Amino acid sequence: MTPQAMMNLVSIAPEVLMTVFGLILVVLDVMTKGEKKSMVGYFGIAFMIITALISQPAIGGKYLGFGNMVMWDTFSYVFFVIFALAYTLTTLGSVEYLRDKGILKGEFYTIMFFSIIGMMFMVSAFDLTVFYVGLETMAISMYVLAGFNKKCAKSAESGVKYFIIGAFSSGMLLFGMTYVYGATGSMNYLEIAEALKNGAAENATVKIGLILMLAGFAFKISAVPFHMWAPDVYQGAPTPAAGFMTVAPKAAAFASLVRFVWIALEPVAGLWGTFFSILAVLTMFYGNLVALSQTNVKRMLAYSAISHAGYMMIGLVAMNKEGYQAIALYSLIYAFMNIGAFTLLGVLKNKGMVEDERLESFAGLAKKNPMYALGMLIFMFSLAGIPPLAGFIGKYMIFMAAMKAELYWLAVIGALNSALACYYYMRVTIYMYFNEPEYEVDATIGRSAFITSFIGAVVVLAVGFFPSAFISFVKHLLV
Amino acid sequence: MLTLAHYLVLSAIIFSIGIAGVLIRRNLIVMFMSLELMLNAVNINLAAFSNYLQQMTGQIFIVFVMAVAAAEAAVGLALIISLFRNKQTINADEINTMRG
């Protein structure tokens, strides 16, 4: 085999391995029955671990294959680990919820697994073609996950809304891509950067194309004013799927955005820098202010997911080494705390009420179910960014990256917003600890939900108390 | 003589019709058809640019776009059917159970 062919194979090996494993999962799904369907998910976890162990690149190693179309390096690897963790936590925590709703099916795990292959391609992409196909693999799987509970009107509604808006934003992204392609003559990130440097940036076609593309991206990361789908979709989707959707696709969109804007659009950094800093401010303020008035905790967490995208955008605008380390670190921490919170949310059941996730349902839980309340307290405090929990470390890294890039005003606005956000996260804990229950609620944590929330809480505490080890580990990986 | 500009104008018109259709029409099937229009405008653009630049990249991309559009159609129609079974309607104005 020629060295080039070898390089091609290495650059794409993790995705190929995952695809083979995904097909095995489909076969396993056919072979299991009824209650055993969760085995499909557990096999998926094993496959992810195998892939993660085999495909770790050397530190600083870059495997660029297929005519500079796919890149496998530590950045792709770290994000693969984040997706794998999101998958693992969701799978472990979802079994009881799915069994309860009568949707314990192998497809749930298989579709999540395949969506991760799409995300890996998005992050590894060095070419718009590969990026687009990865994006759609991810997005189409997500539409299915959102509408997974076919019998539930809300879930179906959420699926359809996600589909219409997702396809609409993909259309915009694609139309922008064609203009960029036409004006620069290439789909490759490096060649686009080259063409932009040589004067294509002045071209009106490129400008229209880039604006359309960035708007499409903004839809995918649910940045205000392109966010309107997010609350409905997250609220309607089955709770474990919603937890997965707020973490993995968002991390993938951010990672691919980092690749695309930092490499391909490097010569026009001023243009997208302004665009994203405005969006970051709008997203943080809007997400936090609207979350204040929510009485449904799931919807509140959906708005909180929007505001967290705003924080991550600060890291994107910073455009330095600290910036991408911070984005990776934030996604990693966010995976633990948000999936933990959603898992606990999925446990809560009202007796005879239509809506399960009302704020009043949390009243008095501390007395009745102290473990549940403690877990929720840890996740809420961490999401609010209160030291010494992991969420604080994530925000700290983001703001440090902004300081380093001399974007002091963005860091200040971010810090103000995390103070604002405390109110609605605290409100949940106040209901749990200080209010009397109005009606009966069942919050018995099953075994699988316990494992996920336990892992989440332990990691949140450990990272919060011993941040230096964790930070240096991520920095070591992402030189 | 047809030039690049003719194709670009055509595709821009089709794309605008698609966007307007998604935003204005309230029937989910019609909205879905408008989405397909948007993707087809993309294909016209790609073919035009591909010919103009004398490159194959754009034409190869068209195949991917068509494949993805087909996959999207399968999933989208399935979702619309599952919504119809739950609510007996495919009017976008009536799918508004979630507010806030």
Give a topology summary.
The complex is a heterodimer of chains A (479) and B (100).
Chain A (H helix, E strand, L loop, with lengths): L2 H29 L6 H17 L8 E3 L4 E3 L1 H28 L4 H19 L3 H19 L6 H32 L4 H9 L6 H17 L8 H8 L2 H26 L4 H24 L4 H22 L2 H27 L1 E2 L14 H4 L1 H15 L5 H15 L3 H27 L6 E2 L4 H19 L1 H11 L2
Antiparallel strand pairs in A: 1-2, 3-4
Helix pairs in contact in A: 1-2, 1-4, 2-3, 2-4, 3-4, 3-10, 3-13, 3-18, 4-5, 4-10, 5-6, 5-10, 6-8, 6-9, 9-10, 9-12, 10-12, 10-13, 11-12, 11-17, 12-13, 12-16, 12-17, 13-15, 13-16, 13-18, 15-17, 15-18, 16-17, 16-18, 18-19
Chain B lengths: L3 H21 L3 H26 L3 H31 L13
Task: Write a concise keyword list for the protein shown above.
heterodimer, A: 479 residues, mainly alpha, two-stranded antiparallel sheet, 19 helices, 4 strands, globular, B: 100 residues, Helix Hairpins
Task: Quickly describe the structure.
By secondary structure, chain A is mainly alpha-helical. Chain A contains 19 helices and four strands. By secondary structure, chain B is an all-alpha fold.
The biggest sheet of chain B amounts to: none
Class by SSE composition of chain A = mainly alpha
Mean pLDDT score of chain A, rounded? 93
**What's the number of domains of chain A?**
1
Shape of chain A: globular
Helix-residue proportion of chain A: over 70%
What percent of residues of chain B adopt helix (DSSP H or I)?
Answer: over 70%
**End-to-end distance of chain A, in Å?**
31 Å
What's the tally of helices of chain B? Answer: 3
Written as H for each helix and E for each strand, in order along the chain, the element string of chain B is: HHH
Q: What is the oligomer described by this structure?
A: heterodimer
